[in-house]
Amino acid sequence: MKGKIIRINRTLFELEVGILIFGALCQFFVFLVKDKTGYSLGLWLGILIAAVSAFHMWWSLDKALELGENQAVKTMSMHNILRYMSITAVLILTAISGIVNPLSTFLGVMGLKASAYMHFITKKISTSIYGEEILPPLIEEPAQEQDK
After folding, report:
1. Contact at 8 Å (CB) between 40 and 27?
2. Please, what is the end-to-end C-alpha distance for the chain in angstroms?
3. pLDDT score recorded for residue 86
4. Does the pLDDT value for residue 60 go beyond 90?
5. Please, are residues 37 and 99 in contact by the beta-carbon 8 Å criterion?
6. What is the pLDDT of residues 96-136, one digit of tens each?
7. Cα 66 to chain center, whole Å?
8. What is the 3-state secondary structure (H, E, C) of 77-135?
9. Pick from 105, 111, 113, 112: which is nearest to 89 by CA?
10. Chain center to CA of 135
11. Minimal CA–CA distance to 53: which of 90, 94, 99, 100?
């Protein structure tokens, strides 16, 4: 299991773990509402959307880094629009269907944002699995001589 986790991009792993922690914390508050099933299903649908969105962001950014500057900007813009349209479509479908609560679905999607703010927590989890992060030395550019 640890081998599979280590192959995953470290930043993506931290983001996904934060999304799951956020979902688990929000699940405690579901017990306070009347429609526990609808709120819980909506929350975990949103968490699933957030996790897929995090993976899609990592994947599209990884692919865009191989492209030229202009093509990378176009590709990233297209993928951002695709991701936002997909999230919007799911939220509209949840609102129309009435099966799950659309507000709890939106709360689950916001797990992506909450996970970014929980970086100090997920970093500790990541360090316990991956070990200390070894960063390459900084490359310093030589100072340019000024014309006199």
Report:
1. yes
2. 62
3. 92
4. no
5. no
6. 988 888 888 898 888 888 888 877 777 777 676 666 665 55
7. 21
8. HHHHHHHHHHHHHHHHHHHHHCCCCHHHHHHHHCHHHHHHHCHHHHHHHHHHHHCCCCC
9. 105
10. 23
11. 90
